[in-house]
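ok so i was messing around last nite and threw this chain in just to see what happens. nothing serious, just curious
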Amino acid sequence: MDVYSLKLFLEAARTCNFTKVAENFYTTQPAVTRRIKVLEKELGYKLFQRNHQGVSLTKEGELFLPFAQKSMETLNLGITTVNNYLNARKKTITIVSMTPMTSTFLPMIIDTFTRQNPDCGFEILRMFSTQIRKSLSEGNFDIYIGEESDIIVDDSWEKTIIKSNPLGLIVRKNENLDSLSEIKKFILEHHVFLLPEEDAPAMTRLSRKLLNSYGADFSLCEEISPVESIMFNIVSGIGYSFLPENNVLLKAFDLQYIPLDTNERLNMAIAYRKNAPSHVHKFSNMVINQIV
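result:
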């Protein structure tokens, strides 16, 4: 008796509908029927009987149901127990990462690191600026990767600052803006989508500063998060945004970065506790080296 067939039986007993079971398990109704028939053949009795409303449990099915439920509960408890044991043996690295810039490179670095260090696991936390500062004082995470202005550390932390490209206008590929006058006119006539103040305050402040320098109407601005949503809005021709140049994101969404007459930039900070375990130092250095 395989676990999958047992799960199908329990779901069928709950829904009394093989088609619904198929939908919930991303399979077909005939496949569910075949697996139930194999299970019934193995047991030696019918579990379901068909009627005009769907299926219902036979008397044998009703008697078998509580034991199947108990078996599945015991099995799940066993799986959870083993997983907890394995996770306890892992060296967990807790990272606070809130900047959109990290979404393009952090997953790849984590993948490389875990291949080289299979005993290490990761926990990625998303926090607002005020939460980061509170958690920092309480020592609730190992590494911070985000905007420099969103973290203030003391001598117990090692911090590396990596300068990003200046903020530029992110638009669709078919937008032809060849001069600063065309860019200024474009900004004044279109919506510019910003990241929320709580989510990326430095990004918002710099964006508003740029808009103010161009004399833009702030009523045309909207706050949207995360950065993927902003990209979809740009692709759809709904809005635009100020972001540092990021070739991975630009290529993924088929957008273009237009430099502006500004040197406003978002600097990234990577900080980790000096007394953190060696694997935390090792991963932090890998992130720094990869980005630089």
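not much to say yet. Residues 157 and 273 are 4 Å apart (CA to CA).
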